[in-house]
Design goal:
The complex is a heterodimer of chains A (505) and B (273).
Chain A: E1 2-11, H1 15-28, E2 32-38, E3 45-55, E4 66-71, H2 74-80, E5 84-91, H3 103-115, H4 119-129, H5 133-145, E6 160-163, H6 164-174, E7 179-182, H7 189-202, E8 205-207, H8 212-224, E9 229-233, H9 235-251, E10 255-261, H10 278-283, E11 291-294, H11 299-316, E12 319-325, H12 326-330, E13 332-335, E14 358-360, H13 374-395, E15 401-405, E16 411-416, H14 420-427, E17 433-437, E18 439-441, H15 446-453, E19 456-461, H16 467-476, E20 482-485, H17 494-504
Parallel strand pairs in A: 1-4, 4-5, 7-8, 7-9, 9-10, 10-12, 11-12, 16-17, 16-19, 19-20
Antiparallel strand pairs in A: 1-3, 2-3, 2-13, 6-13, 11-18, 15-17
Chain B: H1 17-33, E1 41-45, H2 53-56, E2 60-63, H3 69-79, E3 84-90, H4 91-97, H5 99-108, E4 113-118, H6 153-160, E5 164-169, H7 173-185, E6 190-195, H8 204-208, E7 212-216, H9 221-229, E8 240-247, H10 253-256, H11 258-266
Parallel strand pairs in B: 1-2, 1-3, 3-4, 4-6, 5-6, 7-8
Antiparallel strand pairs in B: 5-8
Helix pairs in contact in B: 1-7, 4-5, 5-6
The chains are: A alpha/beta (505), B alpha/beta (273).
Chain lengths: 505, 273
């Protein structure tokens, strides 16, 4: 059983409240949900919509055809009617306008009735979330106005919901973060807001300086004096940080960078999604120095991989880049598993206040003094290379790749990051194996073996040029010919991807 | 522990940077006599002639990037508010590449010190003009001479909210050392602008020595603005006030953040909490 419901309105009307309330009720009833958020760069007005997927099994994407439309304005009906399945339902705002700001709550009430749940479940949730008479009344009236269409029964699953941003924040807190430094930029801002809200309770600090150049340099300064530090940004801000990343490479001050991608180049399509920044995550910053690039594909992985990024960065004095995108950061996922226990991130290095410590952007001797000597320069370059070999070895203890689907299938899909949910939903029941790459640098040697074992290899990426494909070709010499690429700033829809996969199989 | 290092000094013979280095050592030495610990100092330098001081001064820190002294120093202080953080920067560093950081550092009033070696040229890149080079200044990059308005960093610091603003003459080691010492002792963001010649590319300051006169002004913003206006970094005439041009007590960044207040109370950085 799987339902897709569009919830639409103009910015500021509160459509997230509807999907939020309904999702909470659904997971309490044991159903999995996936909530996709689509909004333009507008604060009030325009057209925003969420697509809420509801399923009795794990779900990580949405589909092109919808079972129902919940419309906060009439424009929503106009825009989405073409996607409505035959016999699908539409709830219009007209009958509920008297509830004013509680229009969204009334519509949530309608949907709960349509799905076939008891009113008590609805009212209890509204009391928990909003607890005011007007909202409760609106929910009640909405519920009474509709007729039951489905009859969903309570299931036994124990499910959580979380966005990718929330998960990264939890991963950071689990790693005992001391400082998060960031300048606002969609879609990285979610982590800034999450961590800012947690800072007092969890005893760390969140600081927003004047720009991303300040962010990365302040991040290095803070880490130098012993703070476990993460900085966060999106593509344009990451570009500005690149010189600082290079300073990290020379100074070896540990630093974790959270990079949430959005479609570029330039300002691009700022509130939508893309996997177009893998290249710059791998290469950003002048000179040659080691780094770690990790791309989680769901919230549980985001929690675990954030911790690994901190761990490796502190252990090796290296740069760790945690690569996400709008689709992972802002979609709300549901899951029944749990993240692994976090590794302790120990700061063992000497810091100022304990003794004289010197770090430098110049090539330097072991005391931190500047040198232009050829033999020291060469020695240090080799040292940086060796450090990467050590990082590679250490990363092997973590899940650098994951395999899903039919383990013996000769049809192999390769993908990474936020496409995971759509790929898993698309290959459900098909003769496909899915290889998810989590560590982009270092890259797992298993990947080559898996490609050689398969007969039919398909690359799936949410970008124009197949950046993971290029990386795999660089590291293995294998060119993946079959590619399904999407670059319209929207994520993959599982039903469309399934059709594409059947074609290339 | 000594403040000297064994590194070979590579400033040009006769460069006023030797004197600035002496003055900084003298100030730190005096503070150490008064209980400041050498290991509690952290410096950040930019890139340029000034920055070589990193190798000649035996205190810890980061030899940072061009223009990024202030955010790096801010970070060090956020990481451990108990450190005495000194930024050594150049005029190109601070007033060109890093100008935005300068304005915001004044606003933040983070308890740290910025010392600008203002030789009014990009000397390590062979003498191009900076925002404080006098108009008409010629270089290989600007053979027709500079036509842009000069920047008055003193005025900019004052309007941006710096709580300690001083100017001195590099050639006067004793006075410069006193200014640096007072700046470090000041609670809040302290800015010490040191006028110096570049003896290879810009000898303008040498000609202005006779125009300099000592002043001291505290808490009076109006007077500070008048003092700042006396010399616009361009006109060869006009008196150049040196000394403390403004000083006032304003809540510092670490007094405003409960997390940092806690670190200060416990006298630790994040590593030890």
């Amino acid at each position: 059983m799987r339902l897709n419901i569009v919830i639409g309105g103009s910015a500021g009307q509160g459509i997230n409240k509807i999907s939020g309330i309904v999702s909470k009720i659904m997971i309490n009833q044991g159903y999995f949900t996936f909530n996709y958020r689509d909004y333009p760069s507008i604060i009030r007005g325009g057209h925003n919509f969420n697509i809420l997927s509801i399923s009795d099994k794990r779900v990580g994407s949405y589909e092109s055809k919808v079972d129902g439309i919940i419309a906060m304005d009439n424009n929503t009906v106009k825009v989405h009617k073409k996607d409505l399945k035959k016999g699908g339902f539409i709830i219009r705002p007209d009958d509920f306008l008297e509830y004013g700001r509680n229009l969204n709550v009334a519509l949530a009430g309608c949907l709960i009735k349509i799905l076939g749940f008891d009113k008590k479940i609805l009212i209890d949730e509204i009391k928990k979330e909003l607890n005011n008479k007007k909202s409760i009344n609106a929910a009640d009236k909405g519920f009474e106005a509709e007729k039951k269409i489905f009859s969903l029964k309570k299931l036994k699953n124990k499910i959580n919901i979380m966005s990718g941003s929330q998960a990264v924040a939890i991963g950071a807190v689990n790693s005992e973060i001391n400082l998060y430094i960031a300048y606002p930029m969609t879609p990285a801002t979610g982590v800034l807001h999450e961590l800012a809200a947690k800072q007092i309770k969890n005893g760390f600090m969140v600081f927003q300086p004047e720009n991303e150049v300040a962010v990365v340099n302040a991040g290095l300064g803070a880490s130098f004096s012993g703070a476990r530090t993460m900085v966060g940004t999106s593509g344009g801000g990451f570009d500005l940080m690149c010189e600082g990343l290079s300073l990290q490479g020379m100074s070896e001050i540990p630093l974790v960078v959270y990079l949430a991608a959005r479609p570029g180049p330039g300002t691009g399509v700022p509130t939508y999604t893309s996997q177009g920044d893998l290249n710059i995550a791998l290469r950003g910053g002048h000179g040659e120095f080691p780094r770690v690039v990790i791309a989680p594909g769901d919230p549980v992985e985001a929690i675990e991989k954030t911790n690994e990024a901190f761990y490796l960065s502190e252990k090796f004095g290296c740069l760790s880049i945690l690569l996400s995108d709008k689709h992972l950061a802002e979609s709300e996922f549901s899951f029944d598993g749990k993240a692994k226990k976090a590794l302790k991130v120990k700061v063992n290095r000497k810091v100022p206040g304990e003794c004289i410590v010197k770090a430098s952007s110049y090539e330097h001797d072991k005391h931190g003094n500047t040198t232009e000597d050829a033999s020291i320069t060469e020695k240090n370059a080799i040292y940086r290379l060796k450090k990467y070999v050590q990082i590679k070895r250490a990363a092997k203890r973590f899940e650098m790749i994951k395999i899903y689907g039919k383990k013996n299938s000769k049809n192999l899909v390769i993908g990474w990051g936020s496409t995971k949910g759509a790929i898993l939903d698309a290959i459900e029941g098909l003769d496909f194996k899915f290889l998810q790459v989590l560590y982009m640098m270092p890259l797992s040697e298993q990947i080559k073996k898996e490609i050689l074992k398969a007969k039919n290899v398909v690359l799936v990426e949410n970008n124009l040029t197949g950046q993971l494909g290029r990386l795999i070709r660089e590291k293995t010499g294998i060119k993946i010919e079959k590619r399904i690429l999407k670059y319209d700033a929207r994520p993959f829809l599982s039903d469309e991807l399934r059709k594409e996969l059947m074609k290339v199989r | 522990m000594k403040l000297d290092t064994k590194n070979t000094i590579t400033w040009c013979p006769g460069c006023p940077n030797y004197k600035i280095c002496e003055a900084a050592k003298l100030a730190i030495f005096r503070l150490m006599k008064n209980g400041y610990k050498q290991k509690d100092f952290a410096m950040v330098t930019g890139i340029g002639c000034h920055a070589k001081i990193f190798d000649y001064l035996n205190i810890g820190g980061i030899y940072g990037l061009h223009g990024r002294v202030l955010p790096t120093a801010l970070g060090i202080k956020l990481g451990n508010p108990n450190l005495h953080v000194l930024g050594f920067a150049g005029d190109g560093d601070t007033y060109a590449e890093g100008i935005s950081h300068f304005i915001h550092a004044c606003r933040y009033n983070n308890d740290m010190t910025l010392i600008v070696h203002d030789n009014r040229s990009f000397s390590l890149t062979t003498g191009q003009g900076t925002p404080t080079s006098q108009s008409g200044y010629k270089s290989k990059a600007e053979p027709l001479g500079l036509v842009n308005l000069t920047l008055n960093p003193i005025k900019l610091a004052l309007v941006s909210g710096a709580s300690f603003v001083a100017r001195c003459n590099a050639r006067n080691v004793k006075h410069t050392a006193m200014m640096i010492e007072k700046a470090i002792k000041h609670k809040g963001f302290s800015f010490v602008e040191i006028l110096q010649d570049c003896i290879v590319f810009n000898l303008d300051i040498n000609n202005l020595d006779k125009n300099m006169h000592r002043v001291e002004n505290k808490n009076n913003m109006k007077k500070a603005m008048v003092l700042a206006d006396k010399w616009n970094y361009d006109n060869i005439k006009g008196k150049i006030p040196i000394g403390i041009l403004y000083q006032a007590r304003r809540k510092t960044l670490d007094e405003n953040w409960p997390q940092l207040v806690k670190l200060k109370k416990k006298k630790v950085g994040w590593k030890r909490i």
